[in-house]
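Reply to dn_fold:

You asked what the input looked like. This is it:
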Amino acid sequence: MDQPGFISVVPTLVVFVLAILSRRPIESLVTGAIVGLVIIHGSGFVTGFAETSLRVMTDEDVAWVILVCGFMGGLIALLIRTGATRAFTAIMTRYARSEKSALFATWILGILIFVDDYLNSLAVGAAMRDVTDKYKVSREKLAYVVDSTAAPVSVVVPFSTWGAFFGGLLVANGVAAEGEGLSVYISAIPYMLYAWIAILLVPVVISGAIPSLGGMKAAEIRAKTKNQMVPPGAEHIDQANKAIKPNENVTPRVSMFVLPMIALIFFTLYFDKDFLTGIYITLGGTALVVLAFRILDINDTFDTIMDGFKTMIEPLGVLVAAFILKDVNDVLQLPTYVVTTMQPVLTAESLPAVIFASMGLVSFMTGSNWGVFVIILPIVVSLGQNLGTDMTLVIGATLSASTFGSHACFYSDATVLTAQATGCTAMQHALTQIPYALIAAAIAVVGYLILGYT
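and this is what came back:
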């Protein structure tokens, strides 16, 4: 499209309306994408859908997500089958002796596993499900705590996949000199207000200073009064997570959980924050140890890895549908339309707050954080330079917006994977988390206004 207009927003609006009515993300995403393809191709939308879906499935980033999530599922399955997860849960249960301490332990574990938000969501969710179930914590509340220490933590810790990716983009867009991308990124970390607030809001919620709100309150009442931690409609997810059972002939070893997690973090950082390489080495090494010490036989080992990959099929289906919608939105120039619509109200002082609000809206609507940042960063840099705004503040606001989108959208990768790992649906997780995400976003907007005008 030469000139994007309001019609650029229509497919995403269709997605949100259908998702709220049906609570079915995949069908809503596909329908919204088809509406967008009709706008783009008219009667040739079927051919357009075939071309778009093929382009998405052959995209390097999409292939990366599929491999990362699938083999991470395989690694977690292997840890469950060997009894490692059970052993780790037993250790955590010794120290987590109440609902609050179990949730605080989840929060701390999420901060420690900072290297990647995917690793964080999947590993922490799998490790803490049984611990929080013991104290009748709803899966929705567990999902909120896990998700709030996934992308937000990976953003503010520069030695993560987020730091590597965005540091490179800052160099590519002329914001940082060659080799200085990570330094510029680190200078903007104090201004990533949403990420900081989202992380620090969790202990406030756990302590009860901010009570359970809306759907979260209903979820907590259900868990406490009916002993039903898994929400209705999410039983199939919980069954899939429990389909892989510990081998009763194996002695559980907590080292079989802790060492692979340490190895995964180490190898990801060692290979220039390449999470996929880290998973390959860790999964391969864990499988070799399992076979060498005869913990499982060769058939059981590789069947377990494949079963773990299978558990990720549903969340990967949602993510692929979201990528198709993102491709359609890129053609319709949705991000550009939202930013240019906000441009008339921009001043040097208001730019950080407006960038956070508009970029956060785009990231929320598209379910994309890294992809939107690639598209919008050149526009944001140009606006910041023309208005003479502090670029570290602008970068912090932009990254905060990406974090908000990742955290709040019901079909973002972080939301979908967290829901899968904790045992609820993406919609259940998103709808119960959104009040807290909006609280953090409102505080961030106020913070950016204060910083901009002082």
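The two ends are 40 Å apart (CA to CA).
Hope that clears it up.
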